[in-house]
Design goal:
The protein has helices at residues 10-19, 73-87, 117-122, 128-145, 149-154, 158-176, 181-192, 228-245, 250-264, 273-293, 303-319, 324-334, and strands spanning 32-33, 40-47, 50-57, 97-99, 104-108, 115-116, 197-199, 208-211, 214-217, 224-226. It contains 12 helices and 10 strands. The chain has a 5-stranded antiparallel beta sheet with strand order 1-2-3-5-4, covered by helices on one side. A 3-stranded antiparallel beta sheet has the order 6-8-9. It is an alpha+beta fold. Helix content is 50%, strand content 12%.
């Protein structure tokens, strides 16, 4: 679809909110840009009807390397939000409405009382209780959607998942590290071929708000019916990287790692939990390496730490699959203060 940039088209924003019945006739509608995110334009709109957030998918992601993805992914995000909200309504916001002409949708603005989990973790506030809740909510969503043919049919989005996750992360890392390419491309092949649950695809602390009722999951534009191990590894990777960044807080972050897996594990009912654990453990070092040398590197590691992560992730990747607990113990020892 042709891209209509909402930041340059105030009339389009006015039309959307009036069509949804959220703005009265003649009521001014002003969209305030919000910070954060590389793949979407996100705006806050304060009206008499309430405080709202409108999100629009961007055709070109805001990263240094070239990364272009169809904006139609936003409608799969809407579908994920609605599906997951039905499973965990306290932890996934409702969608108020969508606008196909601009590739955007509206949901309530989650402001006062909600804090970004990434910001909390980087500030040293690593609460294992929050990690436990995130693991439990993710497990609930996976279990409720497991092996559902109707959901699998709606989320035939493997091409988008490849463009948003497998190519810019694992395949890009394989290009940078040809000596590890067989291992990394093997992870791509297995992940792409495993289709069991509704995957969020970006379970990152930056996409989770911590509110009065616990964590709230956002930004599901990578949604795909696929391998639950990817969601598991993608989130756990952030505890590892932040432990490398903040050695003084590593013990608490690794406790978050364990709390997450301990809450998630009992929710696995669609297959042997050890199989999910093994696939996640195999993915983790590949994803850690990808956040150094992929298309979306983490911004908070200095060059010395990046090199340490690069070396150790390569070692773990070369060692082959293991268990999440064992990997966490090795990581903690490597990056202990």
């Amino acid at each position: 679809m042709p891209h209509v940039d909402l930041s340059q088209e105030p009339g389009a924003v006015q039309r959307i909110f009036q069509a949804l019945g959220l703005a009265g006739p003649g009521e001014p509608v002003a969209a305030e840009p919000m910070a954060g995110g590389v793949s979407s334009g996100i705006y806050r709109v304060a009206l008499r009807s309430g405080d709202w957030c409108i999100k629009q998918a961007l055709p070109r992601l805001k990263v240094a390397k070239d990364w272009v993805v169809p904006v139609e992914r936003v409608f799969h995000e809407v579908d994920w939000l609605r599906t997951a909200h039905a499973v965990a309504p306290a932890h996934v916001p409702p969608v108020v409405g969508e606008d196909r002409a601009t590739g955007s949708f509206v949901m309530p603005f989650l402001g006062q009382g909600h804090r970004n989990w990434k910001s909390l973790l980087l500030a040293g506030d690593a609460d294992p209780g929050v990690a436990r809740q995130v693991g439990d909510v993710l497990g609930q969503i996976h279990a409720a959607t497991a092996d559902r043919a109707d959901i699998a049919a709606r989320f035939e989005t493997g091409h988008l998942f490849h463009s948003l996750r497998l190519e810019p992360y694992l395949e890009e890392a394989a290009r940078v590290h040809p000596q590890l390419a067989d291992r990394l491309l093997g992870l791509v092949e297995r992940t792409a071929g495993t289709r069991r649950v509704l995957v969020h695809g970006d379970v990152s602390p930056k996409n989770i708000l911590v509110g009065p009722q616990g964590p709230v999951l956002l930004d599901a534009e990578c949604a795909w019916f696929g391998d639950p191990a990817f969601d598991l590894a993608f989130c756990l990777n952030h505890f590892l990287l932040k432990a490398a960044h903040r050695p003084a807080g590593a013990a608490r972050l690794m406790q978050c790692f364990r709390s997450f897996t301990q809450a998630y594990g009992p929710r696995v009912s669609w297959e042997d939990g050890a199989s999910v654990d093994s696939r996640a453990a195999a993915l983790l070092p590949g994803l850690a390496l990808a956040r150094i040398d992929g298309k979306s590197p983490v911004e908070y590691l200095d060059e010395a730490t990046r090199e340490r992560v690069r070396r150790f992730a390569s070692t773990l990747l070369g060692a082959g699959p293991g268990r999440l607990d064992d990997l966490a113990q090795r990581w903690a020892l490597e990056f202990a203060p």
